Write a sequence for this structure.
């Protein structure tokens, strides 16, 4: 995928040689060149530019991987290898990779995994209002009153949830679209009104759909999905 220009300190840090702060120090000390010219803070690197540190050509940027998995129940969305059910051991991917956000252990569905740390907050930050869609099955018949109260905001975890979209799919099943990611949010919202969640599956994050991906299966995001993703994240904080 062709990259647009990026800030010099970000370019340097993404090679794994140092942090952005260290890169800024190196730039200030005149140790960095772009196309054989002394670099300055605020410079950007475009495709084809040559960056040098102490007159040594900086290695290529690592290749970023963007995957989705249909997470099974019983797998924990953690990189902590001390957890016997961690997602890292489950996927057994050849590169160091981590999930963007979480699905609790009992939940299933769409989870994005990547080694690109720069997109994590842009996707997850509540202020960016990126949608996440879920299908939820509860233990008793869904009433119109329950749906209305869920939409209006529910007091949990010392706050009130943001207004959301909800649609009844069957007697016991509904679809809900959130732009928040509070801890066990949907389960807590349902519990507040006396409903118990039997099954919870995430089916969409932003424009990325789970589709018919089998439980436990993994695939890479397509070029089309990535193009839309990065365009959507351009204005995210």
């Amino acid at each position: 995928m062709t990259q647009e220009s990026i800030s010099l300190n970000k370019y340097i840090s993404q090679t794994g040689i140092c942090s952005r702060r260290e890169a800024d120090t190196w730039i200030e000390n005149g140790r960095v060149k772009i196309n054989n010219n002394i670099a300055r803070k605020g410079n950007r690197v475009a495709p084809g530019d040559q960056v040098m540190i102490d007159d040594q050509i900086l290695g290529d940027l690592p290749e970023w991987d963007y995957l989705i998995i249909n997470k099974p129940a019983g797998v924990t969305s953690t990189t902590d290898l001390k957890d016997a059910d961690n997602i890292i051991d489950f996927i057994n991917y050849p590169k160091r990779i981590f999930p963007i956000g979480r699905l609790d252990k009992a939940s299933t569905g769409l989870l994005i995994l990547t080694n690109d740390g720069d997109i994590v907050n842009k996707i997850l930050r509540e202020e960016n209002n990126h949608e996440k869609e879920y299908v939820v099955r509860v233990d008793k018949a869904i009433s119109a009153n329950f749906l209305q109260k869920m939409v209006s905001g529910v007091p949990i975890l010392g706050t009130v949830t943001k207004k959301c979209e909800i649609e009844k799919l069957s007697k016991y099943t509904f679809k809900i679209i959130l732009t928040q990611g509070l801890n066990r949010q949907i389960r807590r919202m349902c519990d507040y009104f006396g409903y118990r969640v039997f099954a919870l599956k995430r089916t969409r994050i932003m424009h990325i759909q789970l589709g018919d991906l089998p439980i436990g299966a993994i695939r890479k995001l397509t070029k089309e999905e990535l193009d839309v993703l990065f365009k959507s994240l351009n204005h995210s904080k």
The mean pLDDT is 92. The helical segments are 8-14, 20-28, 87-91, 120-124, 144-152, 185-192, 223-233. The two ends are 22 Å apart (CA to CA).
